[in-house]
Backbone:
């Protein structure tokens, strides 16, 4: 069972027009034919099962047979994480966190950040591919690269946590997982003292993720899985 | 703090002779000098702090100042997992599981395996690098590629689990984590019906790792982290 992604339809749509990239894949790579059945998600919880009416390589069209609507996940997980120097490591994090379960991701720019420019569109594609591969119908929201202080001062809803490696009082994340979580993960050189101080002054709870020191992208996956696992117990 | 790996020393060693590859790194890449302090692990729990006596690019020598011996981890985790078609995905699993905590890894050859030949030495290097980066002094044991049936019939010590995607009774791993665990993870096409039947007949407990379907390497990390997290609660 293969899933395709096209954001521009809702439960009132009778015909779905598929974007160029996905159309090329359907028509040229997979060589699907008129009359073939196909599954499409809009990334917002809606799954459409339909029949291909046109397999034009830039503009496939699908007649909807039925819809299946998924309920929004009960718990909201937002991870704000400093993109790693090596792009593939950060893309692993995007892919794996989508497989395991995440609702929102903010790439953050910190004092010790090794990567200061990101490939937003490429990251979007990684999230879309991971969503489809997991047969998931919710696309994690990917925010723009945001500076640490701008992020800290923004309107943040979930229970707030910061994972840092400095000495100081910390709780194990597994002990303090809330209904809705926002977890900050720093760059390879950790958050700076002033960044940690600022976060604590804005009611971020300091946490530890593991006994051993984890790479940034590993910390991201560990945080993501810890939240999902604790909620499933 | 940087850690180096040389297996051939024990707590009776006064002088450590470092292997060629690590010597080259110390001498040519990092350009360490005679008199510099250095930390070395033998991968079996022993950490040596010493002074460089010779920085020969093929044969560094270190005079030991002191040793630190770590206790064997209380719990033993062994994951038997089918190497993925894409090598980088499997190497990602080796690296992340070492960061999170694992004692033994057996690459297994299954009916639906997409990879039937593995780069054993390359995988060893990935484990060594991950151990050093984590400042860990225990190198996970990497066994040779073993066929599914040969593995099932071998002498296996830990509480045995098999994670499969077929229908049938399964417990969540998080509910049944034991002191010492052996978890089998199948290839992208899952274990075959007969492989599952054989495992169940040899007292492997069927488990699920997640609500959603995970890639092989993600399943490996989820299993590894689930065990580590449950033990830390």
Residues:
């Amino acid at each position: 069972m293969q899933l395709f992604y096209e954001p521009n339809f809702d439960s009132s749509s009778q015909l779905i027009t598929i974007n160029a990239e996905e159309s090329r894949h359907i028509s040229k790579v997979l060589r699907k034919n008129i009359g073939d059945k196909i599954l499409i998600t809009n990334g917002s919880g809606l799954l459409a099962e339909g029949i291909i009416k046109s397999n034009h390589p830039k503009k496939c069209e699908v007649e909807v047979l039925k819809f299946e609507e998924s309920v929004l996940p009960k718990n909201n997980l937002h991870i704000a994480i400093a993109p790693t120097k090596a792009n593939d490591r950060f893309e692993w994090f995007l892919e794996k966190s989508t497989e395991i379960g995440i609702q929102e991701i903010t790439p953050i720019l910190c004092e010790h950040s090794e990567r200061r420019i990101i490939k937003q569109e490429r990251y979007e594609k990684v999230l879309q591919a991971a969503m489809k591969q997991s047969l998931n119908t919710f696309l994690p929201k990917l925010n723009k690269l945001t500076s640490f202080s701008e992020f800290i001062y923004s309107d943040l809803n979930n229970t707030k946590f910061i994972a840092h490696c400095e000495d100081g009082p910390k709780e194990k994340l597994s002990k303090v997982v809330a209904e809705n979580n926002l977890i900050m993960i720093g760059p390879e050189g950790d958050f700076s003292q002033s960044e940690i101080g600022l976060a604590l002054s804005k009611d971020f709870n300091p946490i530890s993720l593991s006994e051993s020191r984890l790479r940034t992208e590993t910390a991201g996956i560990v945080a993501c899985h810890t939240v999902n696992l604790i909620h499933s117990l």
In short: The longest strand of chain B covers residues 46-54. DSSP finds seven helices and 13 strands in chain B.
